[in-house]
Design brief:
Order of helices and strands: EEHEHEEEEHEEEH
Mean pLDDT: 83
Strand content: 25-35%
Helix content: 10-25%
Oligomer: single chain
Number of helices: 4
Number of strands: 10
Shape: globular
Low-confidence stretches: 23-28
Number of domains: 1
Radius of gyration: 18 Å
Length: 228
Amino acid sequence: MAQENQVAPEFVYHVILMMSQSKGSSGQNEKIRILGTYTSVGKAKDAAHRSLFESGYERAWFSTFETNPEVLEEFSVCQGVGLALYAIATDGTVFRVRITTSPNTLRLTTDNEDGRIPISLYYVVQTNVPYCTHERKPAHDTNVEGMFKSYAEARKFASTLLLSEEDGITVSSYKDYCEAGPNEKDCEYGDNVIVHAIGESGENYFVSVVMCQELESVRLAEASFRMS
């Protein structure tokens, strides 16, 4: 449990699992899961390295399984920064576990030895894909832009993330702009994607609201994804 007299760190570190699987000519479908938020980058890296095994996977199920920082640095050119684990299952499913940093706006603390924040949170995650396509490709740039204690708060923030009245950025500033309806939790551009937009140069932007998931539920969700 969090302690009131603890000093909240300035930053927190999120462990993000991204899973993609080839779907024939339609390209790649990608799912994003937040596995946890930690008060130190070291604890977050430890959790990232354990994540797939704690989800119930076994090393023998992967044709590629890499956690070596030097090798991952080479992968980061096309897989994105903050990569802590890169694995490919024998069925072709690709797993990327990344660590992303954000300001600790909620002043979160924990006394858990593993450094994990013990409360459920909702995250607004933005993925930028620097080429024109309507497929959700493996992320070149995926970051947590905000964390909230309720879905309603996260959804409200997500709805305005790509807009800025001060800078004159409106819906009409994009070639295409699609937002999920009030009673919808996605806009048909991917799991939990609330907003999808295409910039003037063809960049694709995906804004998702993702709830932190326990590892067992991630394993079950991934199994369902592979059967779809």
